[in-house]
Each structure stands twice: as structure tokens, then as C-alpha cells.
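Intended use. Records such as the CBS domain-containing protein entry shown here are meant for training and evaluating sequence-to-structure methods. They are not intended to support clinical decisions.
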Amino acid sequence: MRNWKDIVISPQTPLKMAIHMMDKGALRILLVTDSENTLLGAVTDGDIRRALLASLDLQTPITQVMHKNPSVAFNTWSATRMRKLMQQKSLLHLPVVDESGQLLRLETLEKLLYPEARKNSVLLMAGGLGTRLRPLTENCPKPLLKVGGKPILAIILENFINSGFNHFYISACYLAEMIKSYFGDGSQWGVKIDYINEEKPLGTGGVLGLLPNQEISSPLIMMNGDLLTNIDFGNLLDFHEEHQGLATLGVREYEYQVPYGVIEADSYHVKSIVEKPAYKFFVNAGIYALQPELVQAAPQGQF
């Protein structure tokens, strides 16, 4: 897909310029945003044709042509939910915004139906003991616990496949044979699965040291094998490559409320009392995109 940023225009854009950008962008849609990148509307090639048939002046502001309430998806939606909306409304494109209406990207039906094949490998960490979920995990590894009738790890695997990934490493330790028996070599899903054997739990960094480094020549996505998320893994990888960092970490906002009044004091003098204040933090969500050189630098056999 062409760069969607090339089809973003301001509300002051005249119709003539919009026609030029529509032709140059070759996506059959323009997105109108304000100076804060808030989505104001969308213009399709059909809107342009209707404007010309109505003999509108070519200097007419695009705001008189655009749809002011276009269909949108939120960045928390899954690819499946976006695809269903587009098929229900016969849409070829769908702007994606955050909760404040900021434009984040443009999804296309073609991309959702036929995701780009990714050469990048995925490491799914499934070696934990699942102690906090006992007795459920006494005879079943946590990644094989079912949600909606399907193992957690199978849901994760299928989400990656739907984003175009086809080569996976699964690290296993506790009840590893059950995981290997369920997923096999991946042929049931049309993908390749290799296994990393942890003789003892090694944690996130330790597992990296067990990978066959010579096979990792492009950014690797690593993720906990018990994490359910709607994240678009392809977009995560695109973000990582665009910003050219050694590592990209997935995070989530976590709020903690102190259950008591918090006192601010200066020596023996109370300056203020804040009743049950709430504090927000960004915490590690267990999803990473890593450059090959970072993977290759991981120590072997260390936690």
C-alpha cells in the first residue's frame, strides 16, 4: 500500500489541489485533518466526481465536499472487527483513530483480506509454570488453557498468521510435550514452528540466548505466550522499522489508587492531605520487536 500520509490534507485545501492529491495518492480517498491531526472528514473519488458534476468552483474548500462523519475504527479494535465493518458497509478504506479522534493510520480491505507476507520470525514464550493459576495449571500449561473453547496460545498464533507471519519459535519448559503435541510442526496452520527447549525457566532475556542466531536476520517479534491482545502485529513491526530503534516495547497504562489519604509534610507540619490519590504508569505489556544484533547479543543459558 502507498504511504497513507500522502493523502492527508488540511480543511483549507481547494478542490483543484484535492483532485491532484487524489490522483497522486492512488488510494481513491483523502483524509482531512486539522493542525492537531484530528480527523475531520474523508473525501472519496466519488465525492470528487459529484463535485465536478455540480460545477463547483475548483477553488472551493474541500470541507464543502468531504464527509464530515466518516466511518472509523478505533486502534483498540481487532483486524477481524475492522474487516467485518468494512464488508458490512462496502468500504475499501477505513481510517483508524484513537479515543480522542487523532488519526493514526488508514486500513484497507485488501490488506485485511490478504495480509502482506512477513519474513520476520516470532518467538512465543510459553515456558512459565503458571503457579498463580493453580490448580488449573497442575496438569495443563497455562498457554493451553482455553478461552472461548480454544487454547490461549492457539488464539495468539492465529492472530499472528492473520497479520502475515509464518515462522514461529515456541519456548517451552513446564509440560512442554503437551505444547509440542498440540501444535506439532505448524503444518496444520500452514506455518513452520520450531521449539526452544528450556531445561529450567530462563525468563525473557534468557530465552533469546537459546535462539539459533544465524537464522535471525530481520527484526524479531517476541511475546508472552499467555497474552491475549487485539494489537496489529504488522503495524507494530512497521512502527519499529520506521523509528529504527534497537527495540520497541509494547506497554499499557496501569492505574494504582492509594487506599488511604496521602499526607505531604514538611518536618512536623502537614502541608496537604490528598484523599485516595490515583497514579498512572506505563508498564511492560510483554510484547517486543527486537533488532537481530540485540538478539545475537543475548547471553546463553542465563536468566
